[in-house]
Amino acid sequence: MTSATRSAGQTGEVVRPNTLRRLLRNPLGLISIIVLGVLLILAIIGPWIAPYSQTHADIAASLAGPSADHLLGTDSPGRDVLSRLLFGTQLTIFSGLLCAAVAIAIGLPSGLLAGYYGGWFDSVAGWAGNMLMSLPGIVVLLAVRAALGPSVWISMIIFGVLLSPGYFRLTRTAVQSVRNELYVDAARVAGLSDGRIIARHIFSVVRAPIIIQTAIVTGVAISIQAGLQFLGLGDPGEASWGAMVNEGFKNIYVAPGLIVPPIVMIGLTIGALVLLANALRDALEDGQKVSRKRRLTDIATGAVTMAMPVVKTGGSAERTAAPARGKRAAATVEAGTEHHLVKVTGLGVGYPQADGSTKHVVDDVSFHVDRGEVLGIVGESGSGKSQTAFSILGLLPDNAEIIAGSIQFDGKYTVEPGDTKVDQARVRPLRGKRIAYIPQEPMSNLDPNFTIGHQLARPLRVVMGMSKAAAKARAIELLGLVGIVDPARTYDLHPHEISGGMAQRVLIAGAISCEPDLIIADEPTTALDVTVQAEVLDLLRGLQKRIGMGIVLVTHNFGVVADLADRVLVMQAGHVVESGDVRQILRDPQNPYTRILLSAMLEGKEPMTMLTEVGRERAGARA
Amino acid sequence: MLSFTLRRLGAGALLLVVISALAYVLMFASGTNIARNILGETATEDQVALKQQQLGLDQPLWQRYLGWAGSALTGSLGRSWFGSEPVAQTIATRLPVTLTLVLTAIVLTAIIALALGVLAATKRGWVDKLLQVSVVVGDAIPGFVLAIILAFVFAIQFKLFPAVSTITPNAPASAWLLSLTLPVLAIVINAVTSSAQQIRSAVIRQYERDSIRTLRSRGLGEGEILFKHVLRGASPAGLTVLSLQFIGMLGGAVIIEKLFAIPGIGNLAVTATQLGDVPVVMGVVLYTVVIVVIVNLLVDLLNGWLNPKVRVA
């Protein structure tokens, strides 16, 4: 959580609100905690407040209904149901907790060791864990019962061993992620030993998941022991809920009410545990949503950190104020603008937040691109340039909203003024055929389960209606066109069998395959080696000249812009800060932010590119 | 692919050896009074010593395990200490019943959970909310309690199905169908919500992938994206969930079989456990582990077939 606190310091926003407070504010969480508290108290004092001993039998009062002597009646040997229920509560709760304790005692330290040291211990422990998890618990417990007798304590200890891999995995993953973070931040951390940092980090990271896991494990343990007792495999000398269910089931015709109290207790206990786990998970996820988003921008931004303004709009007031969209009759675009290939007017994109406000990521952005023209959109990560590009493609995330403005493509609106979402019915026919997309990260943008050829040929068949053979021939031709040496062989390869540079060429081949009018290229060279970058830029320039298509080139790198673009748009924090002819802006930048970006390039060291490249390359290799 | 399969087979065999050895040692290390248990309190010391000799309990533990394992390899699991029937034969007549029960349940669970999970992931809205609620409810009710409720309502109150199974090896199909409906239902209801929930998250994770966005940008339809790319990508997670559910069902079947008096190996295991009939319990454990190994192997092979990256790993 280091980066969360770091960025909190810079943005002045509240760090993660207290998970416990979120939990208690959730009514289900509060109820489950109260129920579990009462059960725990009953488990402790139960045997003292029980009116009878658990084995005291009054044959004369067999199967009696509720009375002053026996508040919940009696079972077939005439034992007091309430007393047995209370004794059973102690047995169930304590042995369930014992099971969880055993699982923690084994899983937590072994997970710590495996995550920290890795190596052979990690392999052996991982294998043992898989083995334990691949055994059906009840069958093992039957064997244990046959070997070691009916004690619920013994079976719960064994069951705890069986459930320990859950804790092992959880801890191991947490330790590894903290360790990885430590490597990155190692330079910043002086003085403290790895062990102490890990202990502190692990505690804060693992605490809540362990409580969740414990609630689940205790629930499973109680369920399985009740099951065993119901089968008559419990200790006959001790009152237990499962045995009481059995007793009730046997006498279901004679005394139908007998089965109710133990079932209610079982349902109530396990239900409360499940609800607690759920509520806690929700509380945790709510907290993470905020910090994860912030962390992503924080890491990606690198040198220049700029917090995104969270603008509170009065709910949907702004949207309702916008002209209501008529029926399907599409509004006509402003006269005199039809000839622009794409025209974006006053575009705003936002994400609704949990607290009812809307986070604006793009604000009042306007530009146009003509046929055969290359527009560069420059800005750092998080400046809204990719969001703008995705709006044109209609590929914004589901929760994104268009909060203002319009987009028109070739004289027709794809986003009319007043629309809150990109109308898929209008954009889908354009995608692939007329608007294409070159993504940033080559590896993650190819589906690992399908061959390169399949991913190139399918769109040709779907969009262009080609036959199978024609699509294959065209795909191989395209692979050659983007400079892949052995196209026919590459056609049959899977994405993991080619390099990142080749993958990016494949993606470019895919984008130009249907000869689109417009290409949206989102950082097309960022994830590549410097030498490959130049080749890919050459390729794009050549193709652009040959096919005569318009390009929207999204990048943070002025070098790429200088190489390719005719005009340029500089974005910062969702706004356009400067725009114009590329030579004019390179020669005489007006905006101070443009100057910062330019100087970064002119000194010739591209600090942001190099740093993020290493990180991305590694992320790509892992994914 | 061959070496991949061989490695998985080896791991399975190792699991089998480790578990059977552990179970054997566990059962016999504590079993000093096994002979007395069988003969009862009234037996004389001489009778007990003789019985011990008959059962081979006077030999060292490792020797006995090797003997047991050796004969297990030839298909013999010894004889029940109580009925004197060969264990392998007892299990062989009961295994089909349990497999019918569990396989029917897992197939139904897979179909329903896949449909529900995909629907909840793609449509969200009320389907999703309903799933979320039923997951919590499903988790909160133990399988056997659910089975009791089903038995009470549909067998005892409405008498739609028999409360006690009428299955015998030669019973007509209708008897199997009627007897297994409630048990299968109990198992499926218990397994389906959490499976659907996990399939839902796997599908959502796939939709968040960059490659899906790129496929959309190429003009592919939503149907092709869902059925070819998303489901294929989510299949390893889905298969893992279902294989874990299957193993869980093998355990759950023990209680369900006892409850509905179904003559499967679960029921056998409970009776044998109550009697302390160690060879039978050992046999059931062994068969269960074999089934687990086979299921895991099938899932691994399927995953390798579906996901080209796994094959090289």
TrEMBL record, chain A:
<dbReference type="GO" id="GO:0055085">
    <property type="term" value="P:transmembrane transport"/>
</dbReference>
<keyword id="KW-1003">Cell membrane</keyword>
<feature type="transmembrane region" description="Helical">
    <location>
        <begin position="152"/>
        <end position="170"/>
    </location>
</feature>
<dbReference type="InterPro" id="IPR027417">
    <property type="entry name" value="P-loop_NTPase"/>
</dbReference>
<dbReference type="InterPro" id="IPR050388">
    <property type="entry name" value="ABC_Ni/Peptide_Import"/>
</dbReference>
<dbReference type="Pfam" id="PF00528">
    <property type="entry name" value="BPD_transp_1"/>
</dbReference>
<keyword id="KW-0812">Transmembrane</keyword>
<feature type="transmembrane region" description="Helical">
    <location>
        <begin position="93"/>
        <end position="117"/>
    </location>
</feature>
<feature type="transmembrane region" description="Helical">
    <location>
        <begin position="252"/>
        <end position="276"/>
    </location>
</feature>
<dbReference type="GO" id="GO:0005886">
    <property type="term" value="C:plasma membrane"/>
</dbReference>
<dbReference type="InterPro" id="IPR000515">
    <property type="entry name" value="MetI-like"/>
</dbReference>
<dbReference type="InterPro" id="IPR025966">
    <property type="entry name" value="OppC_N"/>
</dbReference>
<feature type="domain" description="ABC transporter">
    <location>
        <begin position="342"/>
        <end position="598"/>
    </location>
</feature>
<protein>
    <submittedName>
        <fullName>Dipeptide/oligopeptide/nickel ABC transporter permease/ATP-binding protein</fullName>
    </submittedName>
</protein>
<keyword id="KW-1133">Transmembrane helix</keyword>
<dbReference type="Pfam" id="PF00005">
    <property type="entry name" value="ABC_tran"/>
</dbReference>
<keyword id="KW-0813">Transport</keyword>
<dbReference type="InterPro" id="IPR035906">
    <property type="entry name" value="MetI-like_sf"/>
</dbReference>
<dbReference type="InterPro" id="IPR017871">
    <property type="entry name" value="ABC_transporter-like_CS"/>
</dbReference>
<dbReference type="InterPro" id="IPR003439">
    <property type="entry name" value="ABC_transporter-like_ATP-bd"/>
</dbReference>
<comment type="similarity">
    <text>Belongs to the ABC transporter superfamily.</text>
</comment>
<comment type="similarity">
    <text>Belongs to the binding-protein-dependent transport system permease family.</text>
</comment>
UniProtKB/TrEMBL annotation, chain B:
<dbReference type="GO" id="GO:0055085">
    <property type="term" value="P:transmembrane transport"/>
</dbReference>
<keyword id="KW-0813">Transport</keyword>
<dbReference type="InterPro" id="IPR035906">
    <property type="entry name" value="MetI-like_sf"/>
</dbReference>
<protein>
    <submittedName>
        <fullName>ABC transporter permease</fullName>
    </submittedName>
</protein>
<keyword id="KW-0812">Transmembrane</keyword>
<dbReference type="InterPro" id="IPR045621">
    <property type="entry name" value="BPD_transp_1_N"/>
</dbReference>
<dbReference type="GO" id="GO:0005886">
    <property type="term" value="C:plasma membrane"/>
</dbReference>
<keyword id="KW-0472">Membrane</keyword>
<feature type="transmembrane region" description="Helical">
    <location>
        <begin position="133"/>
        <end position="156"/>
    </location>
</feature>
<feature type="transmembrane region" description="Helical">
    <location>
        <begin position="237"/>
        <end position="260"/>
    </location>
</feature>
<dbReference type="InterPro" id="IPR000515">
    <property type="entry name" value="MetI-like"/>
</dbReference>
<feature type="transmembrane region" description="Helical">
    <location>
        <begin position="280"/>
        <end position="299"/>
    </location>
</feature>
<dbReference type="Pfam" id="PF00528">
    <property type="entry name" value="BPD_transp_1"/>
</dbReference>
<keyword id="KW-1003">Cell membrane</keyword>
<comment type="similarity">
    <text>Belongs to the binding-protein-dependent transport system permease family.</text>
</comment>
<feature type="domain" description="ABC transmembrane type-1">
    <location>
        <begin position="95"/>
        <end position="303"/>
    </location>
</feature>
<keyword id="KW-1133">Transmembrane helix</keyword>
<dbReference type="Pfam" id="PF19300">
    <property type="entry name" value="BPD_transp_1_N"/>
</dbReference>
<feature type="transmembrane region" description="Helical">
    <location>
        <begin position="176"/>
        <end position="196"/>
    </location>
</feature>
<feature type="transmembrane region" description="Helical">
    <location>
        <begin position="99"/>
        <end position="121"/>
    </location>
</feature>
